[in-house]
């Protein structure tokens, strides 16, 4: 695929241009356009990731709030909560963990859906079943109320009427509307559930506390989001375990060692093709091993790897799998993503007593996510060590079981999370002592920069969607790239519409 390379200076210029558009729209009293460009800027920065917060956008959100809404000094009714969910999809983020704990604690809360559905078509049946028929739970579907200003007014009035003492913000990085509203309630405690601890997001000036699931996120929030250490809490989570219908493995999985891996595709793409190199070596050395990958995003580099190495009968890309717990029950080994580590997937492996194959560059490690009960070594710190561990796990069933049982000992479960949340709500949560860890921000940025230019269409997608025909006048290179990748985008939409799933096992 031909694509013109964006320099760092160009992307910075694109981003600053959009921020300026947002500011100008506000001063022109065009609030809709201002919010739209704030979201566009946040989207761009999320995919680019050169910074982790932008005070220009944060101040603009506060200004919009002051312009549209009167400040309310209500502190809310004790033990009454609001949970705002930008994702609204089963097994995405931490929605179900919090709902389950709030329900078990017999909490009274208002649950707000921001969107009608997940952008990827993932349903919310499980979430709805947890909310419905609960006398202490109210539901507000914000998406039904049209434009930004309507939604802002509806949410503001709902908070005034419901009067929660605490707000949990479970937000997408670009969510702007809830932040405008929450800014008008300075006396209501606001917890940011930091889902995207590795990347840019809006809201650092709105929150009262940031709930971090690992020390990496704690470090970034303190060093790059400029949040006071006293306002950043280490609050790890656990994976939701449920009985599900198992969709099964291909027939060729019989008598094979099934290696499962998954997550967003961008997590496995780097300049050196490290993940693919490890995968290739494992498969060539072990004829009895097969791989299932459940992922989202641009699958083309992975498909090319499969085709070039004739792994059509050894690797399958399954797309989204709802039966994630059953997959972990029935697989033999979980292979973590690299260069970016998987979070929830690694936890699923641990709680299902499956050994984790993980490579670490020394800057980020899976232990920070999995070891929520006690610490234990999981990561390999060289390719040779990784492949040696892989060989041992694939060839020795007793070793696999031993390592799987060890993983289970490291991770906390539902009851500990519920106890932690109860302590948080009653102002007595201390938790584990967080610590500042070394973070190689430059290396992390370069990973994002590489993917943006080589495996992702993010710049093109967000710029064209928002600026439309103007993009050709302002950013000609974006238009050229859009035209080059258009066939790929259209084919992707066609596959999605027809429900075509890429599968190589027959």
User: How do the strands line up in the largest sheet?
Assistant: 3-2-1-4-5-6-7
Q: Report Rg.
A: 23 Å
Q: Shape, please?
A: globular
CATH-derived architecture of the domain at 64-238 and 415-425:
3-Layer(aba) Sandwich
Q: Could you say what the CATH topology of the domain at 64-238 and 415-425 is called?
A: Rossmann fold
Give the biggest beta sheet: 7 strands, parallel
β-strand number: 12
The overall pLDDT, averaged over residues, is 90
How far is it from the N-terminal to the C-terminal residue, by CA? 28 Å
Helix run count: 20
Name the CATH class of the domain at 64-238 and 415-425.
Alpha Beta
CATH superfamily grouping of the domain at 64-238 and 415-425? Glycogen Phosphorylase B
What percentage of amino acids are in beta strands?
5-15%
Q: Runs with pLDDT <50, length 5+?
A: 494-506
Q: Indicate the percent of residues in helices.
A: 40-55%
Structural class: alpha/beta
């Amino acid at each position: 695929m031909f694509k013109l390379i964006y320099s760092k200076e160009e992307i910075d210029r694109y981003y600053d241009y959009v921020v300026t558009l947002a500011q100008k729209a506000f001063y022109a009293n065009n609030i809709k356009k201002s919010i739209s460009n704030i979201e566009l800027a946040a989207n761009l920065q999320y995919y680019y990731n050169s910074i982790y917060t932008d005070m220009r956008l944060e101040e603009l959100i506060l200004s919009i709030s002051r312009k549209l809404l009167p400040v309310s000094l209500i502190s809310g009714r004790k033990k009454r909560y609001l949970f705002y969910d930008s994702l609204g999809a089963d097994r995405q983020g931490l929605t179900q963990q919090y709902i389950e704990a709030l329900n078990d604690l017999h909490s009274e809360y208002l649950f707000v859906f921001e969107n009608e559905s997940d952008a990827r078509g993932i349903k919310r049946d499980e979430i709805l079943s947890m909310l419905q028929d609960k006398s202490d739970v109210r539901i507000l579907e914000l998406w039904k109320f049209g434009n930004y200003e309507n939604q802002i007014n509806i949410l503001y009035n709902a908070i005034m009427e419901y009067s929660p003492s605490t707000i949990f913000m479970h937000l997408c990085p670009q969510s702007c509307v809830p932040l405008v509203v929450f800014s008008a309630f300075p006396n209501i405690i606001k917890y940011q559930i930091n889902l995207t601890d590795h990347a840019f997001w809006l809201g650092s000036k709105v929150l009262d506390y940031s709930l971090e699931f690992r020390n990496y996120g704690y470090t970034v929030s303190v060093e790059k989001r400029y949040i006071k250490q006293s306002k950043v809490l280490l609050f790890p989570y656990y994976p939701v375990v449920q009985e599900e219908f198992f969709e099964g493995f291909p027939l060729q999985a019989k008598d094979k060692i099934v290696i499962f891996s998954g997550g967003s595709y961008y997590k496995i793409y780097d300049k050196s093709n490290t993940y693919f190199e490890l995968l290739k070596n494992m498969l060539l050395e072990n004829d009895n091993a097969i791989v299932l990958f459940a992922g989202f995003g641009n699958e083309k580099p992975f498909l090319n790897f499969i085709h070039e190495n004739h792994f059509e009968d050894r690797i399958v890309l399954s797309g989204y799998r709802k039966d994630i717990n059953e997959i972990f029950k029935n697989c033999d080994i979980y292979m973590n993503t690299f260069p970016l580590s998987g979070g929830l997937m690694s936890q699923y492996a641990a709680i299902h007593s499956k050994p984790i194959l993980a490579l670490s560059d020394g800057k980020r490690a899976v232990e920070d996510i999995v070891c929520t009960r006690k610490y234990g070594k999981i990561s390999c710190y060289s390719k040779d060590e990784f492949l040696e561990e892989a060989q041992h796990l694939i060839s020795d069933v007793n070793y696999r079981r031993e390592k799987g049982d060890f993983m289970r000992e490291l991770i906390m479960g539902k009851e500990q999370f519920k106890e932690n949340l109860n302590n948080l709500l009653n102002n007595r949560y201390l938790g584990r002592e967080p610590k500042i860890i070394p973070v190689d921000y430059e290396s992390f940025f370069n990973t994002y920069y590489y993917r943006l230019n080589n495996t992702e269409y993010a710049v093109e997608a967000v710029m064209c969607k928002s600026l439309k025909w103007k993009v050709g006048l302002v950013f000609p290179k974006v238009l050229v790239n859009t035209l080059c990748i258009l066939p790929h985008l259209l084919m992707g939409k066609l596959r999605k519409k027809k429900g075509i799933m890429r599968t190589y096992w027959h």
